[in-house]
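Incident log, structure service

09:12 report received: a user says their structure output differs between two submissions of the same chain.
09:20 pulled the input from the user's history:
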Amino acid sequence: MTDHSLSFCPVFRAIGVLQEKWVLHIIRSLLDGEKGFNELARDVGGCNSATLTQRLEHLEMQGLIRKRTEDSQGKLARSVYSLTPAGQELQSVIQAIDGWARTHLTTPDPTPA
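09:34 re-ran on a clean worker, output below:
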């Protein structure tokens, strides 16, 4: 495949969106429902705030999540994130990865994260 033909391959483009570290963890977390930034950070675990912010902005630009700002009565506004319908459709992708991993990755990962 040439570089030009890769830009039109749907699988190549999807992997380009989903391959960044933490992206699938963020989507998996939001499958349980909307979450504030801090709750999402705790749920994802291990992702620093700057990286999480960058990934959330990227996912919002891709149309996979939406950000809503709630007024907190004089306090700092609270950002709440949820999946768009396109983001929710990734549930089947995550379930497929989970099924594959349960079948083929039956031993613990020998390399620490």
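09:41 both user submissions now match this output. Likely a transient worker issue. Closing.
09:42 reviewer note: The beta strands are 35-36, 65-72, 75-83. The chain has a mean pLDDT of 87.
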